[in-house]
Write a structure and sequence with these properties.
alpha+beta, 2 domains, about 50% helix
Length: about 375
C-alpha cells in the first residue's frame, strides 16, 4: 500500500526552515530561466504584432536592413504600378516610399541610444495599424514629426510639443501615435519628401512598403520583384523581415538557458543534500513504516514525491519572483542599429515551464536519496538515532 501524501506534506511543514531554504535556491534558478523566457517572448510578440501578412518590404538587392538600403525614386515609379497592389482611399496604389535614419537621444535612464527616424508617405500611415494617441499628424512640407508611444515615454526630448534636431534644423513633435506595442512605437515619423531633402537625400531613399490586395497577390509581388532584372530589388513579406529580427534574441535565450542549467546543477545538489539529510534524520520513521507493512517501493515513491513537492514549491516561488517583471519595458538594438522597446511577458505557459523545470530538478535531486531510504534494513533503521 502507498504512504499517504499527507505524510510528506507534514514533513515539509515541520522542517519549514530547511524546506524554505532549499525551495528558495530552486526558486532563484527558476526565476533566472523565466526572466529570460519572458524577455524573449516579449520581443517575439512585439515583432509579430508589427507585421502584416499583406505587407511587402522592398530593399536594394543585397541590403540586409532598411538603414543600409538605397532605393531610387525612379525605381518607385516603376514599382507602384505592379499588379496586385491594393488601392488606397485616395485611389492611388498603396505604396509608401520611405527614408530611414537614426539619431542619438538621451532616454529616461540618462543613457544615449539610437532612435529610428522614418520619413514616409500618407499611404504609409494608412496601411499601418496605428492610431493617433495625442496631438495631430504631421503636415507634409513642414518640419513636423510624430513620435511613437514608446519613444515619447522613454525619451524626455521626444514628448509632445518638444523639438528635436536633425538634418538642417529643428523639428516640432506635433503628435504621439500608438502602434499597440508594435515595433513602430519605437520610431519617429515625418514627411518623406521634407525629411529626405533635409538629409540631403532627395533622390536616394531607403525602402518601399507595399500593401498587397490579398495573400496570393503578396506572394506574387515578392516573386515578381525578386525576378525583375531591371529593378534590381529584393522583396520579402513584412512577417519574414521581422522574423529575421526576432533571431537576434536567440543568443540571449541560449545564454539564459545555459546560465539556468548551470544554476540547476547546484540546485539539484542542494535538493539532494536536503533529502539525504532528511533520510538520515528519519531513519527510525523509515524502520517504523517498514514494520507497519509499507514496502520498499512505497518508501521510495514517498521520498521521491516529497523531493518533487519541495522543488515544485521552489518553482511556485520562482514564478512569484518573476511576476513583477510582467509588463516591464526594456529595449534592445534592432537591425537598423536603433533601440526597439518591448515589454517582458510572463504568460501562464512560461510559468508552467518554470514549475515543470523545478519538478525536473526535484526528480534529479530526489531519486538517489529515495533509493537510499528504500534500501534501509528494518533493524538497522530502528537502531539509528
Amino acid at each position: 500500500m502507498a504512504i499517504p501524501l499527507a505524510y510528506n506534506l507534514r514533513n515539509l511543514v515541520v522542517r519549514k526552515t530547511t524546506t524554505l531554504m532549499t525551495a528558495l535556491g530552486i526558486a532563484l534558478t527558476v526565476a533566472v530561466l523565466l526572466s529570460i523566457l519572458a524577455l524573449v517572448n516579449g520581443l517575439r510578440v512585439t515583432l509579430e504584432t508589427s507585421s502584416d501578412p499583406l505587407h511587402v518590404i522592398v530593399l536594394r538587392k543585397g541590403a540586409e536592413s532598411e538603414l543600409t538600403s538605397i532605393f531610387q525614386r525612379t525605381q518607385y515609379q516603376d514599382l507602384k504600378y505592379k499588379p496586385g497592389i491594393a488601392i488606397g482611399r485616395d485611389g492611388q496604389p498603396m505604396v509608401s516610399l520611405e527614408v530611414i535614419t537614426v539619431i542619438s537621444m538621451a532616454n529616461v535612464d540618462s543613457n544615449n541610444a539610437n532612435v529610428t527616424l522614418r520619413g514616409l508617405m500618407p499611404s504609409g500611415i494608412e496601411m499601418r495599424h496605428v492610431r493617433l494617441a495625442a496631438g495631430t499628424w504631421f503636415k507634409p512640407g513642414l518640419r513636423q514629426v510624430v513620435a511613437g508611444k514608446s519613444v515619447a515615454d522613454r525619451y524626455p526630448d521626444a514628448a509632445l510639443g518638444k523639438k528635436i534636431h536633425f538634418g538642417r534644423g529643428d523639428w516640432q513633435i506635433v503628435g504621439v501615435f500608438d502602434a499597440g506595442r508594435g515595433a513602430q512605437d519605437s520610431e519617429i515619423w515625418g514627411d518623406v519628401n521634407e525629411m529626405a531633402a533635409d538629409l540631403n537625400r532627395p533622390d536616394f531613399l531607403s525602402s518601399a512598403t507595399i500593401q498587397a490586395a490579398d495573400a496570393v497577390a503578396a506572394q506574387a509581388l515578392v516573386n515578381d520583384l525578386n525576378n525583375d532584372q531591371k529593378l534590381e530589388l529584393h522583396a520579402e513579406s513584412e512577417k519574414e523581415y521581422y522574423d529575421q529580427q526576432t533571431s537576434q534574441a536567440i543568443p540571449i535565450e541560449y545564454t539564459g538557458i545555459f546560465v539556468a542549467l548551470v544554476m540547476a546543477v547546484g540546485s539539484a545538489f542542494a535538493a539532494m543534500n536536503t533529502m539525504y539529510a532528511t533520510v538520515s534524520r528519519r531513519a527510525r520513521e523509515i524502520g517504523t513504516l517498514r514494520v507497519l507493512g509499507f514496502s520498499r517501493f512505497s518508501i521510495l515513491t514517498s521520498f521521491f514525491v516529497e523531493a518533487v513537492l519541495l522543488s515544485a514549491l521552489g518553482g511556485l516561488l520562482g514564478c512569484l519572483l518573476v511576476l513583477p517583471l510582467n509588463g516591464l519595458t526594456t529595449a534592445v538594438g534592432n537591425s537598423n542599429f536603433a533601440e526597439l522597446a518591448f515589454d517582458f511577458r510572463v504568460t501562464p505557459r512560461i510559468m508552467m515551464v518554470g514549475i515543470l523545470f523545478a519538478a525536473a530538478l526535484g526528480s534529479a535531486g530526489g531519486l538517489f536519496p529515495a533509493f537510499s531510504a528504500a534500501r534501509k534494513e528494518i533493524l538497522t533503521a530502528l537502531r539509528e538515532v
